[in-house]
Structures are given as structure tokens and as C-alpha cells.
Amino acid sequence: MAKRDSRIEGFYRLTPAQRLQKVCEFAHFDDAQATAMYGGQLDIERADKMIENVVGTYELPLGIATNFRINGRDLLVPMVVEEPSIVAGASYAARMVRESGGFTASHTAPVMIGQIQLIQVPNMADAHTAITAARMRVLEHANQQSQSMVARGGGARDIEIHRFDETPMGAMMVIHLLVDCRDAMGANAINTMCEAIAPILEEVSGGQAMLRILSNLTDRRLATATVRIAPQSLQRDGISGAEVIERILWAHAFAVVDPYRATTHNKGIMNGVDPVILATGNDWRAIEAGAHAWASRHGRYTSLSHWYRDDDGFLCGELTMPLAVGIVGGATRVHPTAQSALALLDIHSAGELAEVCVCAGLASNLAAMRALATEGIQRGHMALHARQIAMAAGAEGDEVTVVAQRMIREQRIKPAAAHDILATIRTEYVDADRA
Ligand code: MEV
């Protein structure tokens, strides 16, 4: 089979149908997988089983980021998102990274934490000893709850005991159950395990179990992406690559020291991560919660990514973040488009999906910093923004491009301008027809 090449020249100039054709060729899709990519496949019966009080389904654009090469393998990355420029930015950054060999990515074991809160513990020291002694019993009971996870090589691995002597309500103990979730995100299995072992913990500690729930600060389930980019790949509009690197490093330094900037900088990272999470049917709220908690882990909110210049003058970037994603269970299995998105990525473990997400995050971060540090982000944004305003004003087909281009030329990118231009071109068209 020919080696897959994610560098597809002029992909953005194709029609959606032509792009889908390219994607299907790349991924060797059958008709059902292609149809699922096209969308509109989440039928109301299925949707009605996913959440409560369903009245319909909600569509978002699914775009494909090109140029990604991760650990030597070319990938087309599915991204579901409403914001213009994100797919283009990620593709553009992936192209720069590719020129220097692509992304290197890795992930840790998929170990998550379940928490059991114990209150009214009569004697903390005795409870600590008793819980430690009951460790095997607790783990065995936890593993009886999720035999499929155990069969796949995962399951409860260990317990940890934490003490909070002073809280607004008094002392409490918090038991962490460490669970290797393999290819599942794991929330359901962990919550079931926590509820199942709580009575044992109550019995041996003499306390009362309150909350029994996973933690979304999945600081043991991490993924890392690194890049090393030659200066010449970064030069732009008469600004040398070395100067662009200098400016990017100032942008990064700003995010390191200032939480106001770090929040926006990290939002730019999540611009790459969340659309992949969404496309593959994963829980983006969990990922967001984990990412921002991780960004504050040293006591002050800061940049998730780390950028520096190496001795050869190359720009080096690194992003490590919690990424609790699954490829089995939940919406990943139920949503037909999520299934096609996973098939497009051709990945076979949750860890590999986490690697794609972290690379997309680093790519989006690079694209944003490079734009901000050079021309600013509005130039690129405005072209797409103008198209959206044109469509909102009622422009259809080729009218969208004509209205958008005129608004940009006239430097009046506003709904009123779109309406005026649309009315004018429609009159011109009718007049031409009559002539
Ligand atoms: C916009 O969605 C994201 C940016 O604000 C990120 C950043 O400022 O780094 C451009």
C-alpha cells in the first residue's frame, strides 16, 4: 500500500465534495464511512438515547487539518469547530513543523484517579493503617466491577490516602483509587468502582463516605508533543526566521508570567485540542477542566506550552497536558461521524488519540503566536469573517465570495455593508439579464 501523504496541495481550494473524495482516498473509506463524514448521520432515535429531552440534533462544520506528520506517520486530522481560521492555522503550522521532520509525540499509561471522600473518621491514624491493610481487598472488589477493563489489561492498580485536617466542614480523608483505563476514557468504570469500594472504606475506617467520583485532574494520564523548527520555515513578509523566533519567544514569555495572557494563550492551544476531541466523540469539558487545572499546578496559572531556541537557532516547542480520551465506549461508539473520524486517524489506542490532540494543540499555539508576533491575527481572520457576514446577510453560492471580497476591498466588514453589496450585485445581475 502506498505511503499516506497528508500534504495535499491546494486542498483548501477544492469543493467540500472534492475534499471528501481526497479524504476517502487517503483513508480507504467505504461508502458508509464516507457518508458518515459528510454528516447528518446522527438520527433522532440515536440522539434520543444519548441525552435527555431530545428535540433535534445540532450540526457543526467538520474540517480536515492537513500536513500533520506525527512520529514519522502522516495523518489527516478531523476537527469539529465553529471558529474560522483554526483548521487553516493548524494545517499551516503542521506544514512548518513538517519541513523539519514533524511532531514527536508520546503518552503515559492511561491511569486515572477516582476519589472517595471519607468524613467523620474517628481516628485518622488508625484509619490510615486499616485502609492500607485492606488495599488488596479494595482493589479486587474494584476490579470485579469492570471485568471488560481488566480483560483488556487495565483495572484498579493502587490506592493512595490523603488527609485534609482543616476544611470549612472539619477534617476529611480522601482515598484515591488509581485505575488504568486502557482505551476507555474511563469515567463510568471509575465512578462504578468508587461507589462499590466506598462501603469497604467506611467499614475499615469507621468513617462515612460522601462523594465517590473520578477526578478530572488526570495528571497521570498525560500526552506530550515536541517540535523543532528551522528558522527559514518561519520567515514571513520580509521578517527573517530568526526575528520571528525572537518575537515568538517574547510572546511565550508574556504567557509564562501573566495569567491574563496565559489564559488566552492556552485558549489558543485548546483551539487545536477541542475540535479533535469533539470530532472523535470525546468529553471536551473534561479535557478543558483538566488542562486549566494542570496549567495552575505550581500555584499560579501559566502557559501550558514551553518554547525556547536551541543552540542551532531552531525554535523548539513542547506541550505536555492531561488528555483523558477514549476510543471505546461513550459517544465515540454511538456517533457515526466520530467513528469515521477515528477511522481517518487510523489509530488503535486512546494514547495515540491523545498524541494527535496534543500535537494539534501545539500546532494551533504555534500558528497563533506566529500570527500575533508578526502581522496580527486579524488579516487572516477577516477574510473568513467577511464570508460569514456575507452568508448571514443572505448571500448564496458565488455571491458569498463576491460580497466578502467587496467588503474587504472597501474595508467595511459589517452586516449593513453586506446587505448593500448583496442588493447591488443582485440588481446588476437582473440588469445584465434584461440587457
Ligand atoms: C483565538 O481563538 C485564539 C488566540 O487568541 C490565541 C492567542 O492569543 O494565542 C489567537
What's the short story on this structure?
The chain is of the alpha+beta class. The protein has 17 helices and ten strands. It has three domains: 11-106 and 222-376, 3-hydroxy-3-methylglutaryl-coenzyme A Reductase, Chain A, domain 2, CATH 3.90.770; 111-214, Hydroxymethylglutaryl-CoA reductase, class I/II, NAD/NADP-binding domain (Alpha-Beta Plaits), CATH 3.30.70; 380-434, Helicase, Ruva Protein, domain 3.
Number of helices: 17
SSE arrangement, N to C: HHHEEHEEHHHEEHEEHHHEEHHHHHH
Spatial separation of the terminal alpha carbons = 57 Å
On the 0 to 100 scale, the average pLDDT is: 95
How many domains comprise the coordinates? 3
Largest sheet: 4 strands, antiparallel
| Number of E strands | 10
CATH class of the largest domain: Alpha Beta
Class by helix and strand content?
alpha+beta
**Ligand kinds:** (R)-mevalonate
- The Rg value, from CA coordinates, equals 25 Å
Q: What is the global morphology?
A: globular
Considering the protein shown, what is the CATH homologous superfamily of the largest domain? 3-hydroxy-3-methylglutaryl-coenzyme A Reductase, Chain A, domain 2
Strand content: 15-25%
CATH fold-level assignment of the largest domain: 3-hydroxy-3-methylglutaryl-coenzyme A Reductase, Chain A, domain 2
Low-confidence stretches: none
Strand order of the largest sheet: 3-8-10-9
Q: Which SSEs are present, and which pair or pack?
A:
Blueprint: H1 16-27, H2 31-38, H3 44-50, E1 62-70, E2 73-80, H4 86-99, E3 104-107, E4 111-119, H5 124-133, H6 135-145, H7 147-151, E5 155-164, E6 172-180, H8 187-205, E7 208-214, E8 222-229, H9 241-257, H10 259-279, H11 284-295, E9 305-309, E10 315-322, H12 330-334, H13 336-345, H14 350-373, H15 378-392, H16 398-409, H17 415-434
Bound molecules: (R)-mevalonate.
(R)-mevalonate is lined by residues 83, 264-265, 267-268, 271, 368, 372, 377.
